[in-house]
């Protein structure tokens, strides 16, 4: 079942790909919790690239980023984690965390993304190669969580390549700075 903001963010105890614990709960920090499909997903890897390139600016605004993949630790290390990332990547091979946050599946919406997001698909395929052709039907989702552990925004992708716009994340950061002032 989809989560609707405002609500308390469900707590998650995850481990990143290097064995370090990640707790999603009342952390005292602003958080972008991003759920990704497979580690070989071209759309997902392109978004990881975008978040990596924007990380310094987002972190300067007080944002923590946590990326959760429905994949094994080995696959996350092979694809998304093969380069150092400035934020934690977590493997969720059983998709338990994905289920907790109501992540949906849809073959139709996966095919829609392949047909309508060709430039992003090709950019992502350059990152993962042909392995990106055999990915699951999970849809992406992003959650903005405030410093009190509350969901401020729950963004469920309308297709496999649809992510929360970075402008929306920046607005969330500006609102957090106003609350802190």
TrEMBL record:
Coiled coil: none annotated. Residues 3-178 form the Thioredoxin domain. It holds the Pfam family AhpC-TSA. InterPro entries: AhpC/TSA, Thioredoxin-like_sf, Thioredoxin_domain. This is Redoxin domain-containing protein. It comes from Rhodanobacter umsongensis.
């Amino acid at each position: 079942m989809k989560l609707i903001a405002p609500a308390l963010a469900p707590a998650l105890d995850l481990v990143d790909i290097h064995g370090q614990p990640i707790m999603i709960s009342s952390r005292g920090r602003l958080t972008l919790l991003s759920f990704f499909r497979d580690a070989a997903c071209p759309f997902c890897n392109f978004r990881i690239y975008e978040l990596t390139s924007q990380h310094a600016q987002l972190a300067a605004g007080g944002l923590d980023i946590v990326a959760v993949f429905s994949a094994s630790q080995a696959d996350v290390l092979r694809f998304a984690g093969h380069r150092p990332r400035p934020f934690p990547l977590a493997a969720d091979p059983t998709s338990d965390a994905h289920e907790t946050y109501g992540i949906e599946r849809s073959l139709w919406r996966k095919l829609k993304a392949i047909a309508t997001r060709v430039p992003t698909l090709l950019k992502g395929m350059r990152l993962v190669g042909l392995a990106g052709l055999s990915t699951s039907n999970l849809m992406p989702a992003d959650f903005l969580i405030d410093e009190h552990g509350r969901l401020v925004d729950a963004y469920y992708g309308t297709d496999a390549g649809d992510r929360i716009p970075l402008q929306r994340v920046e607005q969330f950061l500006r609102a957090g700075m106003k609350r802190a002032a």
